[in-house]
Design brief:
Elements (H helix, E strand, L loop, with lengths): L1 E6 L1 E3 L1 H32 L7 H20 L1 H15 L2 H37 L6 H22 L4 H20 L7 H52 L3 H15 L5 H38 L3 E2 L3 E3 L5 E7 L5 E6 L4 E6 L5 H17 L1 E3 L2 E6 L17 E2 L2
Antiparallel strand pairs: 1-7, 1-9, 2-8, 3-5, 4-5, 5-6, 6-7, 9-10
Helix pairs in contact: 1-2, 1-3, 1-7, 1-9, 2-3, 5-6, 5-7, 6-7, 7-8, 8-9, 9-10
Length: 397
């Protein structure tokens, strides 16, 4: 007599919830490690001092993420997403603040030089009576022209613009300081200098805008590539080939500038969700297989090495046999299980089924759904039959 049945199974909500939280914790822990590496890199480059407040906030949030990993993995994941968003432009802002600080230092040096020139001008005022009026007036005009250059530089608001125009302004300053000034042509000299300064400042603003746009594009591109690299590293550690393949398909679009950060985040979120679902299904199936192996051994069966047939979406096949020749075979899919008790005398197969199957729910929390039983006349079955049940009979979830 043979006893063939299919039953669907599922994991209790509490155990499935724990598997899900373990998965979230592992993934979030990997992304948090990447964020810590970035923060450490900023400190190693001594860029953290230029964004002290934001850097401290990111450090505090990272500490909170690592604390929540043990307490509340879902909250840790949400906090880590917020941390990743905070850090996307932190590097560029740190470099911009460093550049501003350096420009401020140069401005201070120039102010000191200007103060020295003012002091020299004051000294010259005391000597004015001893000098010829023409020489004094020429020097005063030169100082006025130099002041026009200084004001032109101050009219540029950003440090990038000031850096770009600095060589041209220095060339004009040296030209005025070294050349003689014809007081009769003063109006023409001032007009020419004004036009030249306008050309220099306009060019600096245009170049600064182009440079800023290029830097923003490069920074956004770098951020997206970094996000992809982080995701590849995480799923490589998790050995998730399906997720890796999907992520690699995104790389040409990112490199080609065909995707922005929002669309990339949406795609990665979908990939992470699918990976979590696969991992949970496989963890649940592993839980069922472990339970079956233990209960079959406990019931006195000798078990062959389980095999995976048809890839991850296929079935784990378990074959077991008693010394008497009675056999049991199970096919465990991602959400369904079929089994067959064969080569038994009478209805003894039911006794073995009752030794194994009820404990799956009592001990391991595996819920078995409606059963479909198929009986076969032993006289019609060859002694050497080893075929596993197909989808037509058995118990299923």
């Amino acid at each position: 007599m043979s006893y063939v049945a299919d039953r669907r199974w599922s994991i209790e909500a509490r155990q499935r919830r724990q598997m899900y939280l373990d998965r979230v914790r592992n993934t979030t822990e990997a992304f948090a490690a990447k964020n810590r590496e970035r923060l450490d890199a900023l400190r190693a480059q001594e860029l953290d001092i230029y964004i002290a407040g934001d850097y401290a906030a990111c450090r505090d949030l990272l500490d909170r993420v690592e604390y929540l990993l043990l307490q509340d993995p879902e909250a840790a994941r949400d906090e880590n997403k917020r941390l990743s968003a905070m850090m996307r432009s932190i590097g560029s802002r740190a470099r911009e603040n460093r550049r501003t600080a350096r420009v401020a230092e140069r401005d201070a040096t120039e102010a000191a030089l200007q103060a020295e020139r003012d002091a020299a001008r004051d000294r010259m005022a005391f000597e004015r009576d001893a000098r010829a009026e023409a020489i004094i007036r020429e020097q005063a005009v030169r100082e006025d022209l130099l002041a026009m250059i200084h004001q032109a530089r101050l009219s540029l608001a950003g440090p990038v613009e000031q850096d770009l125009c600095q060589p041209d302004l220095m060339a004009l300053r040296q030209e005025i300081e070294r050349s003689e000034i014809n007081l009769q042509e003063l109006d023409q000299i001032q007009s020419n200098l004004k036009h030249r300064l306008e050309a220099v400042t306009t060019s600096a603003r245009t170049k600064a805008e182009a440079l800023q746009l290029a830097e923003q594009r490069d920074e956004a591109q770098h951020d997206m590539e970094a996000v992809l690299e982080d995701a590849l590293a995480v799923f490589s550690q998790l050995h998730d080939d399906a997720a890796l393949a999907e992520i690699r398909q995104l790389q040409p679009r990112v490199i080609g500038g065909q995707m922005d950060m929002q669309h990339l985040d949406d795609h990665l979120s979908a990939i992470r969700q699918a990976a979590d679902d696969r991992a949970l299904q496989e963890a649940a199936r592993r839980h069922v297989v472990i339970g079956l192996l233990r209960e079959l051994r406990s019931a006195g069966f000798v078990i062959s090495e389980p095999k995976l047939e048809g890839g991850e979406a296929g079935a784990v096949v378990i074959k077991a046999q008693r010394p008497s020749g009675a056999q049991a075979a199970f096919r465990v899919k991602l959400d369904e299980m079929s089994y067959k008790f064969d080569h038994y005398q009478g209805q003894a197969c039911l006794e073995d089924a009752d030794k194994v199957l009820p404990k799956l729910q009592d001990i391991y929390g595996i819920e078995l759904g409606e059963e479909s039983i198929s009986w076969k006349n032993p006289d019609m079955i060859g002694k050497s039959e080893r075929r596993l049940p197909d989808s037509a009979g058995g118990r299923s979830k």
